[in-house]
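Section 5: illustrative case.
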């Protein structure tokens, strides 16, 4: 096998390759010879713009036709310092004007005073009642007003630092329709209920609404009026109670003074009654009146001390006794003074005058003084 292979290789080496020459297909083809021809140049077309001169633009004739930006020349506003900003003052509430007592209310107070057996109010007392009533209204309004708001702290603009926050990527969640919802979509829609037509037209409905609103307003006004009347009645009662308490305190002081004056009147009456008559005077009536004055002087002293007990009967008894002594001192007291002995007549006259003046003053004060009457009326 090896020898055969070797013999084959030797044969290939000895053979020579001769390539086959290609045949030229253009052999025998002659190129055409162009004849000499005369060249005629084409005619030049006459231009229509030969005599037209182009305009020359000057340096200052240029106009910039570019659109200007709408914000060109606009400056950004500069924010002021928020610390320098003064907070605006809150609006002051409207001033409250108290309402004085009406003439009807004053008449009611006068009737109550007349029923209690007291003299009518004087103009000064009415002015004091009006002032106290209006002051109480102002105090009640001030108590009902809300407290003033606390001052607001100054707010400073926050200083933003460099933020490194990276917003999270929002995941898109497609809505999933449940099986029940899908089934409901496949079902046929329920028929719409029939629309009921009202028997009333729009004019009747508007009239009914207007009447209902009018009744509501009237009821609210009546309720407000009733509340105002009740509040006014309560304020009047409180004002009356306070005034009665003040008068009772003054009456206590007056009763103390009357007790002292009553003791002095009793002493002056006793001194006048024990002064001797002239020897020529022989009148049993004067002697009887003298004994009555003598014994009554002790009674006046006891009643004067008992006035402090705030017993109405003692007050009436004292007013009666001091009034009776005032009448007796006028007659027959004045003729009796003329029949006294001339010795010590000045002292007798002083005792007579003191007893007469003190008895009359005590009787008048006990009968007409409002503080004294209120002192015996109020028992707290």
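Designed sequence:
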């Amino acid at each position: 096998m090896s020898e055969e292979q070797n013999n084959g290789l030797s044969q290939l080496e000895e053979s020579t390759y001769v390539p086959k020459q290609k045949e030229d297909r253009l052999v025998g083809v002659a190129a055409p010879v162009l004849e000499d021809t005369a060249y005629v140049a084409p005619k030049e077309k006459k231009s229509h713009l030969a005599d037209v001169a182009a305009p020359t633009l000057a340096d200052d004739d240029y106009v910039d036709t570019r659109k200007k930006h709408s914000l060109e020349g606009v400056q950004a506003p500069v924010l002021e310092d928020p610390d320098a900003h003064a907070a605006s003052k809150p609006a002051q509430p409207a001033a409250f004007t108290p309402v004085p007592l009406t003439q009807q209310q004053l008449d009611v107070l006068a009737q109550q005073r007349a029923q209690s057996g007291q003299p009518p109010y004087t103009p000064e007392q009415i002015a004091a009642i009006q002032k106290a009533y209006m002051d109480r209204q102002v105090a009640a309004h001030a108590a009902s007003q809300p407290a003033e708001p606390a001052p607001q702290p100054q707010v400073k603009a926050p200083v933003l630092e460099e933020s490194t926050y990276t917003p999270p990527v929002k995941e898109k969640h497609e809505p999933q329709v449940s099986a029940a919802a899908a089934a409901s979509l496949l079902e046929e829609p329920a028929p719409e209920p029939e629309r009921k037509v009202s028997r009333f037209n729009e004019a009747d409905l508007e009239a009914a609404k207007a009447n209902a609103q009018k009744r509501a307003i009237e009821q609210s006004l009546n309720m407000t009026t009733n509340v105002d009347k009740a509040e006014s009645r309560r304020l009047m009662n409180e004002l009356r109670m306070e005034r009665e308490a003040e008068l009772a305190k003054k009456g206590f002081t007056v009763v103390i003074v009357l007790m002292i004056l009553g003791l002095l009147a009793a002493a002056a009456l006793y001194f006048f009654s024990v002064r001797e008559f002239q020897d020529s005077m022989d009148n049993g009536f004067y002697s009887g009146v003298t004994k009555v004055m003598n014994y009554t002087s002790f009674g006046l002293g006891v009643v004067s001390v008992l006035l402090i007990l705030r017993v109405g009967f003692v007050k009436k008894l004292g007013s009666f006794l001091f009034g009776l002594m005032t009448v007796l001192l006028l007659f027959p007291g004045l003729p009796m003074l003329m029949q006294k002995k001339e010795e010590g007549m000045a002292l007798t006259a002083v005792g007579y005058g003191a007893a007469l003046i003190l008895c009359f003053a005590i009787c008048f004060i006990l009968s007409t003084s409002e503080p004294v009457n209120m002192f015996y009326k109020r028992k707290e």
